[in-house]
Amino acid sequence: QLLLCIFTFAMVLVPEAKDQSKAAKGRRRGLARPPTATPALAWAPDDSYTSMADYEHSIQDMVRQLRNSSEPGDTKCQVNLRLWRSNRRSLSPWAYSINHDATRIPADIPEARCLCTGCINPFTMQEDRTMASIPIYSRLPVRRLLCQVPGEVGHKPSGKKCHKKYQTVMETIAVGCTCIF
């Protein structure tokens, strides 16, 4: 466990400290550099997506890949080193399910679900419940319908017609799982 803790510290915190020290050196020299990475909670599509439509299309592609996956819907808490995808090679493996909401664009978004209560011990490759697998959340931009569409559950008919109007909002979605003590 101590080795796992040290390894995690070296992989996560040491690179962050190097990035921070580089930024501090730049400030001492009078250079105003923007931070190298934006926090996950402040993320929004940037130059990598030319439009919201491209962003929504990429999510639709992920959903299509998930639906067409040839892998069995395994729900076992185990690591599979033969797979290239990180969600099955993690010490806190996860699977994806489709989060569906008809009043949102995109209506379907892949969402992570942790497969273990504990974490996989890298020495025994068995679940160790002295640690816990928890979801990692990120905020994704989506468009939400502002009024209810007639015929929806809970909709009370009124004399007014609903004009479909969407507003971009940030929604919290589980994107993976990690291991904590």
From TrEMBL:
Its main location: secreted. The keyword Cytoplasm does not apply. Keywords: Cytokine, Secreted, Signal. GO terms for cellular component: extracellular space. It is found in: Secreted. It comes from the Eukaryota. GO terms for biological process: inflammatory response. GO terms for molecular function: cytokine activity. Residues 1-17 form the signal peptide. Belongs to the IL-17 family. This is Interleukin-17B. It comes from Nipponia nippon.
